[in-house]
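re: that chain from earlier
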Amino acid sequence: MNIYGKSVVLRAFELRDMELLREMLNDPSIEQMVVGWAWPISEFSQEQWFRQLSNNGKDFRFIIEYEGKAVGSTSLTDVDWKNRKAYTGIKLHSSSPKQKGIGTDAVMALQRYAFDQLQLQRLEGSWLDYNKPSENLYLKCGWVIEGIQRQAIYKDGKYHDLKVVGLLREDYEKMVENSKYWES
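^ sequence. v structure.
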């Protein structure tokens, strides 16, 4: 099943997507903006990782397509079915079109799927204190900064604060009602 936004489609990873994902993982400008850390990924390593992915019911990873072309990825991971929550993230390839609302639409589509289809109650995430594009995107989509983990992430020889964020189903529903997002 594909997930449809207003302008994007979220679909399952395919073997043909591994080059795009590898490019994003190996892109220093993207790595600089994400919470985790990375090392160079080879084609062989990437394919092994892909083949080990399974539908375990806890991790859902999607390719973001815009105008029929893969431009990034998003995910719901560590789904906690008892407490009805999951962790989310998004990465857009450096060549993806800018100022087209791709990130916003992908996050909104993922949120709608999480709350309306999976019946989750809460989504969680985080971003580095200096990652203003992520902050702007998620705040626009209704997320709330819930706290700061001081000096939690080490990058480029120093420690950075991590903003911890969340979105409740009621936050999402209120934001959609006020913005009429799905009506336009």
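Residues 24 and 93 are 6 Å apart (CA to CA).
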